[in-house]
Amino acid sequence: MGAESFGNANFGGAAGVARGMGTKRTTTTDPAAVLAAAKARVAVELHGVHGVAHWARVRENGHRLARHTGADKELVELFAFLHDCCRESDGTDPGHGARAADYAATLRGSLLVLSDERFGLLFEAIRDHEKGLTRADVTVQTCWDADRLDLGRVGVKPLPKYLCTAAAKDRDTIAWAYRRSRAA
Ligand SMILES: [Fe+2]
Ligand SMILES: [Fe+2]
Known about the structure:
Blueprint: E1 5-6, E2 9-10, H1 14-18, H2 31-41, H3 52-69, H4 73-82, H5 96-106, H6 116-128, H7 138-148, H8 166-169, H9 171-182
Antiparallel strand pairs: 1-2
Bound molecules: fe (ii) ion (FE2) (2 copies).
Residues 50, 54, 83-84, 147 line the site of one fe (ii) ion (FE2).
Organism: Urbifossiella limnaea
Protein name: HD domain-containing protein
């Protein structure tokens, strides 16, 4: 699956950006609309190292891990789309997690329809993803691992000691993710 097409989620083109914008209220969360909002929010290069191709691999990593960890797959997907959308640079950019979490909070009740408990997990995963933590709820851990498994795109091979879940620490999983990240 390429970086530009993910089921109903449109990773490329102006049409995808336009869809889902505004203040339309829904009764369920539409991941494609959240993706469109994230793309519209991005201030760094949309096709750079923290852009949509990275989000797509984090999403796929997360789905693979969730089959083993039992993580909330919808939250993992929303994390993939939102966690780096408020970067102000492609450098270390401390605080970009907190900015993205605050941005996610602005989408509650419109694009994000989640219980307090589930939104709390998403908020924590986004806010703290840059901090190198490993202890959290398994859905939060799965989000962080999905992101860290994509470090090969910047020349860093993921090490098990920096990963949270047994599923992510699996040698075959690391090799699979590393190959994909290096091919980016
Ligand atoms: Fe990040
Ligand atoms: Fe990331």
